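About this split. The held-out portion is used to measure sequence recovery: a designer receives only the C-alpha cells and must propose an amino acid at every position. Recovery is the fraction of positions where the proposal matches the reference. Here is one held-out target exactly as it appears in the evaluation file.
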C-alpha cells in the first residue's frame, strides 16, 4: 500500500512592514533626542559662525592651440579633431576656384589653362557632379607657387586656408591627439570623439609665454544642496526622492560608505560659491585660484588652502597649483556629421587575421557583393552602391571587394600598428 514521508523544512520569511521606514527614522519625542545630545556633550562646540562672504583672487591663462587659434571662441573638439583642410568646404573650393579662373582670364591669361587643369576631385554627393569639371580652389591654393599665382590673390583668405593644419588623427589608436597651450603649460588631449573636458587633458611644460591676467572678486557662499540631502534644521521634513539605502556599503566599496556618511550627517558642513572673473570670461582659460578668504557671521576671516596629500576631486597633471583647472569651451551639440568613411572590423581566428571591410568611402556606400559575371575578381573593382548588402564572410572564397586583411603587431612601445599583408586598394594603402 502507498505511504507518504513527511519532512520538516526551514524557509526564510519575508520581513513585514515597509523598508523605507528604516531610513525615515520616525520619532515620537524630539525632546528626548535633545536631552541625550546634551548628556553626551554633542551640544558643546565652538562658536563657529556660518560663512557669509568670500573674497578670492583668480588668475587666468588663455588657451590657444599651436596654430594660434583661440579656445575662448572655438570649441575644443573643433581644435583637437580638426581636419588639415577643414576650412575648404566643397562650396568654398568651387567658389574660389571659379573666382581665380575669372581673375586669370582678366589679368593673367597665361595661367588660365593651368588653373582649369586643377579640377575638383573627391567631392562627396551632391557635389560629385563637379568632379573633373570645375576648377578646385584648394588644389590651386596648395600649388600657387608652382603655378605662379600672385600671393595677393589669396590675401583675403585666413591662415588655415593658405597653409594646411597638422593632422591630429592617430590611425594606430583610432583617436585624435592635439595640444592646447595655457601660458607655460601645454595640455596634451586625447579625444575618442566624445566630450572633451578637464579629465581629457594632461599638462606638461610648454613653450608659450606667460600671459596671465589676475582679477579679484567677492561673492556670497551658499549651502550645498543635492537631491535627498538632510535638512539643515531640526525636525524639518526631508525629501525622500533620493533613496540612500539603495547604496549598501561593503568592504570592497569603501567610497560608497563615505558617500552615505556625507549624505546622512555632513550636509550642514558643505558650502560652495561661484567662481567668476568680473571682467574676463572663464571659458577657454586655465583658471587658478590664488587665494580664498572666508568671512563668517562673527566677522572673523579665515584663509583657505588646498587639501593636503595627493587626493583631489578635480586633478590635472602638470598644472601649476592644486587649484588650477582648464575650462574648455564645449559645443552645445556634438560636432558630428554623416560618416565619410565607415569600416567594419572582424577577426578571423582560423587565419589569424583582422579583416577590415569598407562600408562607406568618401561619403558613398559601397558593396562587398561579388558580381556574378566576374570570377575571379578584377583588381581595382568598385561595386555599385545600389548593390549594398549585409556583411557576409564565405570561407575559402576569392577576396571580395573592399575586404582587406591585416595582421596586428605589438611593438615594445605597446602601440598598436597595422601592417598590410594582402592585396589592398590604393585608398587603404594611402590611409595606413
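Reference sequence for scoring:
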Amino acid at each position: 500500500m502507498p505511504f507518504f514521508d513527511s519532512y520538516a523544512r526551514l524557509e526564510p520569511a519575508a520581513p513585514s512592514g515597509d523598508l523605507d521606514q528604516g531610513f525615515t527614522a520616525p520619532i515620537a519625542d524630539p525632546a528626548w533626542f535633545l536631552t541625550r545630545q546634551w548628556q553626551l556633550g554633542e551640544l558643546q562646540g565652538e562658536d563657529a559662525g556660518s560663512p557669509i562672504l568670500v573674497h578670492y583672487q583668480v588668475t587666468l591663462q588663455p588657451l590657444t592651440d599651436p596654430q594660434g587659434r583661440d579656445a575662448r571662441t572655438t570649441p575644443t573638439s573643433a581644435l583637437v579633431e580638426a581636419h588639415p583642410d577643414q576650412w575648404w568646404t566643397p562650396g568654398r573650393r568651387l567658389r574660389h576656384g571659379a573666382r581665380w579662373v575669372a581673375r586669370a582670364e582678366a589679368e593673367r591669361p597665361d595661367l588660365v589653362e593651368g588653373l582649369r587643369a586643377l579640377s575638383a576631385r573627391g567631392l562627396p554627393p551632391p557635389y560629385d557632379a563637379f568632379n573633373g569639371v570645375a576648377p578646385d580652389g584648394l588644389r590651386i591654393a596648395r600649388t600657387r607657387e608652382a603655378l605662379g599665382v600672385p600671393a595677393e590673390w589669396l590675401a583675403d583668405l585666413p591662415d588655415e586656408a593658405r597653409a594646411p593644419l597638422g593632422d591630429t588623427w592617430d590611425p594606430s589608436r583610432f583617436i585624435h591627439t592635439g595640444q592646447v597651450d595655457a601660458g607655460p603649460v601645454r595640455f596634451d588631449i586625447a579625444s575618442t570623439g566624445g566630450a572633451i573636458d578637464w579629465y581629457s587633458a594632461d599638462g606638461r611644460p610648454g613653450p608659450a609665454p606667460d600671459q596671465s591676467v589676475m582679477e579679484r572678486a567677492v561673492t556670497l557662499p551658499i549651502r550645498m544642496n543635492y537631491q535627498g540631502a538632510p535638512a539643515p534644521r531640526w525636525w524639518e521634513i526631508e525629501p525622500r526622492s533620493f533613496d540612500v539605502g539603495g547604496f549598501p556599503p561593503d568592504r570592497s566599496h569603501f567610497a560608497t560608505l563615505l558617500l552615505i556618511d556625507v549624505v546622512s550627517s555632513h550636509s550642514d558642513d558643505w558650502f560652495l560659491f561661484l567662481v567668476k572673473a568680473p571682467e574676463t570670461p572663464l571659458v577657454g582659460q586655465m583658471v587658478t585660484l590664488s587665494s580664498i578668504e572666508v568671512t563668517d557671521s562673527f566677522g572673523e576671516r579665515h584663509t583657505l588652502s588646498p587639501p593636503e596629500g595627493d587626493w583631489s576631486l578635480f586633478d590635472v597633471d602638470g598644472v601649476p597649483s592644486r587649484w588650477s583647472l582648464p575650462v574648455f569651451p564645449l559645443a552645445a551639440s556634438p560636432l558630428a556629421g554623416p560618416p565619410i568613411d565607415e569600416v567594419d572590423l572582424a577577426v578571423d581566428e582560423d587565419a589569424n587575421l583582422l579583416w577590415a571591410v569598407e562600408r562607406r568611402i568618401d561619403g558613398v556606400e559601397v558593396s562587398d557583393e561579388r558580381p556574378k559575371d566576374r570570377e575571379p575578381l578584377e583588381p581595382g573593382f568598385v561595386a555599385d552602391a545600389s548593390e549594398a548588402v549585409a556583411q557576409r564572410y564565405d570561407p575559402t572564397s576569392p577576396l571580395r571587394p573592399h575586404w582587406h586583411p591585416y595582421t596586428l603587431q605589438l611593438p615594445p612601445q605597446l602601440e598598436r600598428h597595422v601592417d598590410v599583408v594582402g592585396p589592398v586598394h590604393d585608398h587603404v594603402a594611402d590611409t595606413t
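Annotator remark: The longest strand covers residues 51-62.
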